[in-house]
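Annex B, item 7. Sequence and structure tokens for protein A, then protein B.
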Amino acid sequence: MRDLQLPHTVTTAIEGANVPPLPQVLLRLIQQVDDESSTIDSLAAIVSQDPGLAARILTAANSAAYYRSTALGDIKSCVVLLGTRMVRSMATSLAVKRLFDADRGAVAADLTDFWRHSLVVAETSRAVAIATGYPKPDEAYLAGLLHDVGQLLLMSALGEQYAWLLSQTGTEDKLLELERSSLSTDHGEVGTWMADQWKLDSELADAILFHHADAAEIATASSLPRLVWFADALARGVEGPVPFEELAMTLLGADASFDPGRTLARALDHVQVIATAMGVAARPESDEASPARTLPNVTVLAPPSPHQEADRALADHIRDMAVMHPLQQDLFTLTSDEELLGALRESARILFELPRMGFLLIDRESGELTGTSIAGQAAIFRQTRIARGIDAGLATRALAEREVCSSFDDGPAHRESLLDRQLARTFGSEGILALPMVGKRRIVGVMLFALGRAEHARLKRRTPWLQNFGRIGGMSVEAWQDATSYRKQAEDEAAAAFRLQARRVVHEAGNPLGIIKSYLRILDQKLPENSEVRHELDVLRDEIDRVAGIVRRMNEVPPPATETASVAVNALVRELLALYAAPLFGDKGIAITKHLGEDSDRAACDPDSLKQILVNLWKNAAEATPQGGRFDISVLDGVMENGKRHVEIRMEDSGTGMPDEAIRNLSFPDPSHAQAERGHGLSIVGSLAARIGCRISCRSKAGVGTTLSLLLPCVQVS
């Protein structure tokens, strides 16, 4: 169900609300991310065990920062997209947020009962989906996990107001009545609104919306809402005049062998196993007269006892340093500007409930304040360039004063700039908040947030936290910029040293190659005109020229682009065999079989690259083939691939076979594989083949041999 309309006051409140996770699950996630042996599957499994974590991951992965045309509706895909470092940063931010909520007047929530119920409904939904043939059991699990997520959103957004509603009832049906009378909406509608923001499948959103419908109404809905409704009713024990066995047959088409009681018992056992692993306290026994609670247990914290102002300020400062340190450590581990700014964006959303924001960073060369190179932002940020010394409103004022500035600050009114108005219009907000990013040695930029008057009042008491967050963000960006600058400087110095050494090698190697070539010329003059050795000398001179070309290119970083050439493959293979057959194969007693023809087609590649590919492959084949083995080579013209003509070079040896890593180097050349057996030469082959458009396929078996096929595109004749 799309475009669900909520009361404006509720929409405004929940837009930036954080859905709190169970602390035990949050701790387990942080521990799992820190474990080097953890996998994406294990992280996704933990996230899938808590509606709060699942909601946060779905929100981040489906945000505009990731530019996805289609929404991600399963937890594993979201974790893969975000990466483990981002998940770790978000988990740390959620942990710090729990300390924020210890401020005076905050609501303390025990989510244990809510968590158990959500997980039981999720497990039951998946089990019922499998038992009744529903084609997407994982979707049913996610819908069951999130069916009551609206309660968490309202509790986070409305604080004491919603806590009072929760305190007045112990059942969901009674809570529903209180929500509708007090808020003109209910947690089902709020959860559906959030699912629509995530752009989840409409049937999944409908399952959240309709899970409190009565039995007659739900019978008219589609499959997933009926399934989740049944799982929720079964988990809460809300059995009406019709037994669950009959409901299962009527709503889900289950056969007579389906046992709802056994399905629920298995789900409860599974949840208890998870709870034990997480360290969650055992659920107290409940009787039929007082069924187990499924709602959050909330209390409003009493204000702390008063302290002397100086003592309190000192305590706050020490607390700031302690609780923000893990977040700073996490941010320092990120390795790209995209990851770092994404983590800051999500941290601000979690910590301060500020969902709409953007960055302007100071260009280190020009000194301009700009968001030109930052992805995932509104167009106004990418189009903004503010020269040094220009007063452009709140952004530059925050940088100049190194203080948090907003449209609603007390004191002398500042002149509202056109940029301030543009940003507020872009955000669709009453005003904006500017947070300077101050590093250890310099200011790196400013974070800009959408801000309303109500949010400004809420954030005033958290100004020190905002300032500290701005410093952490500034130091993180500063460290990343410095690391990038140092890395570039080191690369430039290494490239300069390499070029100097390469010039020496070119000079020292060029002399003997030139002398050898001169002697060959003298030898050629002494030979009779009809000597058959003249052809071999021509081939040898060509090889010397090729080696000299390779040496010369060592002095060129990067290697120059070459124009597309063509080569007669059969002739080239004959020439190379004349030069290399004896030293590579004949001297080792390896028999060579040749199947070469005339060159009716020419391959579209440069001859020197093809020669180097073949020599490297032959050298590897000779090293792997024992004495008395064989090596076969054939050239085939007119091979059709995707409607185009190709020349194929096929080689087969009876050697020991190629290891998997060496085979991978043919298609995915990687310098780090240079130490692998038969790996370095093949890595060079893979790089050259990719450059000239040669496709290589390989079939190898240990102790039997290797077959290689090189497919070279032909010169296209117009």
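Protein B:
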Amino acid sequence: MQAESNERPNIVLVMTDDQGYGDFSFNGNPFIQTPAIDQLASQSVQLTDFHVAPMCTPTRGQLLSGLDAFRNAAINVSSGRTLLRHDLKTMANVFQDAAYQTGIFGKWHLGDNYPFRPEDRGFDETLWFPSSHINSVPDFWDNDYFDDTYIRNGKRVAHSGYCTDVFFDEAIEWAKQSHAKGSPFFAFIPLNSAHWPWFVPDPYRDRVRQMIGDDKELQQKLDGTPSNLEDLISFLAMGLNIDDNMEKLNRFLDESGLADNTILVFLTDNGSTFGHHYFNAGMRGKKTQLWEGGHRVPCLIRWPNQLAAKKIDDLTHVQDLLPTLADLADCDEHLPGPLDGISLADRLRGKTDSLADRMLVINYSRMPQFKVTYTKGNPAIPRRNGAAVMWKKWRLLENKRLYNVEDDLYQDHNVAQAHPEIVAQMRAHLTTWWDGVKDDVMTPERVVIGSEQENPSLLTACEWLDIFVDQQVQIRRGVQKNGAWHLIVDQPGTYEFALRRWPKESGLKLDQAIPAKQVTDGTFPAGVSLPIEAARLKIGEFDQISPADSSGEAITFRTQLEAGPIEMQTWMLDSHEQSICGAYYVDVQRVDK
């Protein structure tokens, strides 16, 4: 229960993209200053041994469900494995059930179609873009971070301004309106920044250049790496823009009188994309890796007059935040159960000096093209040995290498042979954990077509199971890949499928090439011509080839479908009916009952 107020606290949860533990000056970064976030850190409980997944989607799924990624099905950034199990209650559902207004502003990345969209998962107000980043395959064509078109409450709407500014501004305006209604609010602000492409208003680059000056040490760190100074400057500039927006958010909370009764949480979604090149707070690794720098991130929790500012070095995890916030807000009766995460509320309040001993598992589905050492097969297929097991300061990686990060933060020394009893205990935990998830994690979640909630709908190549096509630059290049969609037909009827090489809003023809395009802060490459003259659609028992429509933009099929689960695949064909690639975009509509 709350100490001084009978009103439930508002909750604002900010999560940035691809920033790591060391990308902030409060964690010792010598090259950049993040004063607003530093100030927040000084006012907050800092969880200094806090972990997420090494990739976007698994972290988001664990945050919102309180469950391990292999239990909630959201295990990859694309490849048909981003879909958070449709039957799970989310953090938004929990607060919605407790009479909160709920809103999301930014990157969702847990499913673009019914029943996986944020509006299907407990959010009253939704402003988001699909898939993994702005300019992903299902995103509005040629969005470039500036003056983009987002999905607002189910409809595409153009917005003016830089993406991060838009998401904070819209969240603040919505919070004002929610407060005016007399309702507590849960505002989720998951940013796409500082994710590639590193587009940012140029004045922020000027500020970074002023901060780093002619830093020979920084240039020396980058020499010989795949990175370069200009990319790092752009990445850090995005961080400064985030910091400015955090200052704006704090100013709003202070000036509106909401700060004292608002729990403000700040974290990042995985390890840094640049930290290993220039500053990583002593850790090895980056985004997508099991090394400590791939998944240990900052987590700040501020609640003035309720939680004393301090550092807590207990092993904690992103899936703890759902039960913790529900407990702090006295909403825990609305939690689903059982959860893998635990409430940290008593530890945050100082009612206990430590958390109960536990082991945690990090595992996730890799990008299909990754080269890994734990399997010779497709790393997108979940496997037990692709895991890190964490216990106190021990880290067991890929079921074979053991490190003590208290004595060896950079993980230089594999001490497995010296501690066989530790390895045995952690290996046994991994085996038990895997036995509990291995059957469910192999079953893909399915997008629903033909429902009243979403008809028509857009299917894209980012849902091809265990195939990676999720960047508009891949569409421009005409990548020669193909894969299958796993679907559910909501109700029987006649269904129409329009197969496209380019998205409908582009107005481009199937065989059209496009020139390079200068956008606000960069250039999108030219798009090649593909000699598409026909297409093949196979869905269930239906299997047919058809020529291009008269418009030249799509190839359309109609067929009767019965309700139930079904698989679908497409082929774009040349004049000899040879396959070129799959249809990157398919517009689906149930046209009668």
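Comment on protein B: The first strand starts at residue 10 and ends at 16.
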